[in-house]
């Protein structure tokens, strides 16, 4: 049977029912391969959840060379390069709804 939920409703369902999920896993699960679409959806989901008693929690991305943690991100995003060592190998942020 076809699932008639919106993409954002499916994201909320995935993030509410599991351990933290990476951006790549969300893209794969939803069969959407433009990460910007998912990141935009996550931003809107976070704003919507502020009005409820749930919260979108993000484990920030980390530089895989020097260990720099991108703590100050205001909204979900995937940095392209480390500001400290300029490395482009950045771990994916993880998301969960609590």
Tell me what the structure shows:
This protein is of the alpha+beta class. It has one domain. Helices cover 35% and strands 10% of the residues. The protein has 3 helices and 3 strands. It has a 3-stranded antiparallel sheet with strand order 1-3-2. The longest helix has 16 residues. It starts with 6 loop residues before the first helix and ends with a strand. The mean pLDDT is 90.
Task: Briefly summarize what is shown.
By secondary structure, the chain is α+β, with helices and mostly antiparallel strands. Helices cover 35% and strands 10% of the residues.
What order do the helices and strands come in, and which of them pair?
Elements lengths: L6 H10 L4 E2 H8 L4 H16 L5 E4 L34 E4 L1
Antiparallel strand pairs: 1-3, 2-3
Beta-strand content estimate: 5-15%
SSE arrangement, N to C: HEHHEE
**Average pLDDT score:** 90
By DSSP (H or I, 4+ residues per run), the number of helices equals 3
Placed side by side, the strands forming the largest sheet appear as 1-3-2
Coarse structural class? alpha+beta
In total, how many domains does the architecture comprise?
Answer: 1
Instruction: Please give the largest β-sheet.
Output: 3 strands, antiparallel
Radius of gyration: 14 Å
Low-confidence parts: none
User: How many individual β-strands?
Assistant: 3
Q: Alpha-carbon distance between the termini?
A: 29 Å
Helix content: 25-40%
Shape: globular
Q: Any key phrases for this structure?
A:
single chain; three-stranded antiparallel β-sheet; alpha+beta; 98 residues; 3 helices
């Amino acid at each position: 049977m076809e699932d008639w939920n919106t993409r954002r409703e499916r994201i909320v369902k995935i993030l509410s029912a599991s351990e933290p999920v990476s951006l790549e896993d969300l893209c794969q699960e939803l069969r959407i391969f433009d990460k910007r679409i998912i990141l935009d959806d996550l931003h809107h989901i976070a704003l919507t959840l502020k009005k409820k008693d749930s919260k979108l929690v993000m484990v920030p991305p980390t530089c895989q060379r020097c260990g720099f943690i991108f703590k100050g991100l205001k909204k979900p995003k995937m940095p392209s390069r480390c500001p400290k060592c300029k490395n482009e190998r950045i771990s994916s942020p993880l998301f969960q709804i609590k």
